[in-house]
Amino acid sequence: MKSSLKERIESSILQRILRLNQSTFYNNLRFRVNELLENKKNPYKRFLDYFIIFLILSSVFILIYEVNHKIPKWLDYYDIYFVSLIFFIEYLLRLWLSSNLMSDISKEYQQSIAIGKPFNIWKSLRAGLKKKFSYMITPAAIIDFLAILPAYRPLRVFRIFVLFRFLKLLRYTRSINQFVEVLASKRFELLTLLGLLFFVTLTGAIAIYILEDMRNPNIKNIFDAIYWSLVTITTVGYGDIAPISDMGRVIAMAIILFGIAMISFGTSVIVSAFSEKLNELKEERIIEEINKNREFLIVCGYGQMTKMFFRQSKPLYHSYIILEKDSQKVQEAIHDGYDAIVDDASRHETLRRFNIKGAKVTLLCMSHDDIENIYIILNAKSVDPRIRVIARASSPKLISKYERAGAEHILLPNQVAGTMMVTAILNPTIYKAIYAIFTGQNVALIDEIKVVEYSYLIKKEIGSIDLKKYKLILIGIKKEITKEFIFNPEDDVTIEEKDILLLMGHKANISYFREKSLSKNGDL
Amino acid sequence: MSRGRIIFFGYGKFGYSIANELVEKGAEVLLIVEDELEYQSSLKDSRFKRSFLIDVTDDDKLKTLPIELEDQLVCLMDDDHLNVFLVLSLKALFPRNRILALSDSIHATRKLKMAGASQVIDLYSISANRIHNILNKPIATHFLEGFLDSKHEYSFREIEIPKGSFLHEKNLDTIDFRHYKIIFIGMIDTELANSFIFVTTGLEHKLDSGDIIVCIGKDEDLDNFEDLISYQEEPKE
Question: Where are the domains positioned within chain B?
Answer without folding.
Answer: 6-126, 155-228
